[in-house]
Amino acid sequence: MHDEHAIPNPDESATPDDSADGTSRRAVLRTAGIAGAGLGLGSLAGGTAHADAPQGAPAAAQAPPRKGKTMVGVPFERRSTVRVGIVGLGNRGGSMIDLFLAVPGVRVVALCDPVKDKTAAAAKKVTAAGQPAPATYTKGDHDFENLCKRGDIDFVYVATPWDWHFDMAKTAMLNGKHVGVECPIALQLDQLWELVDLSERTRRHCMQLENCCYGKNEMRVLRMAHAGKFGDLLHGAGAYNHDLRGLMFDPDYYEGPWRRLWHTRLRGDLYPNHGFGPVSNYMDINRGDRVTHISSFGTPALGLAEYRKAHMPAGDPSWKETYIESDRTISLLQTAKGRVIRLEHDVSTPHPYSRINSLGGTKGVFEDYPERIYLEPDHTNDEWGDFGKYAEEFDHWLWKEHANPPGGHGGMDYIMVFRLMQTMQLGIVPDFDVYDAATWTSPVPLSHLSIKAKGAPQAIPDFTRGLWKKARPGVDSEKPKA
């Protein structure tokens, strides 16, 4: 995820076994294999309609029988020191380790990445911070399994190429570890269900580490929405519109072409979480409302091919690729309460960065990029107001306590890591859980299916199995007393 003030680094990490032409054999084979296996929908795309779905909605995806107890409202075990293992030490993991080391009471005990130089560089950061030298795991693609087997790790942080997220989250939970994963947490609908079931069976939390939920603007809007400043909520929007063409063709930025290759496999929204997560928080999705269905549309896939023609030499391996990912996808989601959410994704055309980040209700609207607000009775004459005037009253306590947080993306990365580690140290319920992770990622496979079906609505499963109807706390948290 990126903002206009940060180095672009969504969740990239080292992909080993790169050939001489810069192509990662692992990335090619795993990406092709996952895409070839389909989106894992099976019977989960059908079933009978939920009673809570709006009239005319598609049949709801039937939830498989629960195999454990719900993880809704389940607190962490209290611990004075959180012992962390990090898997993936590329652009994202290699920078996030600094933030784990900056939080008091956190110890980084193990590191894993098949690129030995990156693991060694990260290990030096650990010792430079005054901690004991971490164990390192660099022996091939599956050495993360050995990290997860350790008895001295409480939390596994995963920042690897997307096609490994599911396997690593699954392995961590099966070995008794809580796990946090960069976006997206998985790429197939059946994988999302499996992560839900595993979290319930193992009693381990599995979280999508969505840093945008902790942005200063997002948290201010969230508190304003919960205070009723927008009235009854009606609509929201979020996006990942970021020109990544240069980075996706840069042989030195990503370890291999793994991210670009996803543009040869799927047509839908590859990266919905940064926009969907914050809007879900505003609307209390899974905490009093839920998304029921999605309709998606996609433009032709022209941007990457045009960029390649203008910038890549003849004979470059990218010339063997055929891009099908829509240059811009636009999805509309509806909730059980009838609200509408718009999501966009565009990383293949020239445009300024935007996550849109909009919320509207019966008393007014907020729009970001640039930030502006119009609320009755505060504003009149159809003229935008100053969003900054709401800072003192509505900024979240985390931002008041950490006014100048370290790290990238305007500080939201540190706020997220600090809060997650705090919930583990205090033994309280995390701000989001596996049900949020599955919901926020479900547009990846479902938008692809909807685009293929010319925009036909696709049912979004109720991963909570009915527990969404109960209000409960989320990111809009109270400052702990202890």
Secondary-structure class: alpha/beta
Strand percentage, roughly? Answer: 5-15%
Number of DSSP-assigned strands: 14
**Measured distance between first and last alpha carbons:** 32 Å
Which stretches are poorly predicted, pLDDT < 50 over at least 5 residues? 1-38, 40-56
Give the % helix. 25-40%
What is the ordering of alpha helices and beta strands?
Answer: HEHEHEHEHEHEHEHHHEHEEEEEHHHHHE
Number of helices: 16
Overview of the molecule:
- By secondary structure, the protein is an alpha/beta fold.
- The chain contains 16 helices and 14 strands.
- The relative contact order is 0.18.
Attribute tags:
alpha/beta, 16 helices, disordered N terminus, 482 residues, 8-stranded mixed β-sheet, 15% strand, 6-stranded parallel β-sheet
In summary, what is this structure?
Helices cover 30% and strands 15% of the residues. It is α/β, with parallel strands linked by helices and 482 residues long. α5 runs parallel beside α6.
Mind sketching the topology for me?
Blueprint: H1 25-36, E1 82-87, H2 93-102, E2 106-112, H3 116-128, E3 135-137, H4 144-148, E4 155-158, H5 165-174, E5 178-181, H6 189-202, E6 206-208, H7 216-226, E7 233-241, H8 245-248, H9 258-261, H10 273-282, E8 291-298, H11 303-311, E9 329-335, E10 340-346, E11 358-361, E12 364-367, E13 372-375, H12 391-394, H13 397-401, H14 412-426, H15 434-441, H16 443-452, E14 458-459
Parallel strand pairs: 1-2, 1-4, 2-3, 4-5, 5-6, 7-10
Antiparallel strand pairs: 7-11, 8-9, 8-14, 9-10, 11-12, 12-13
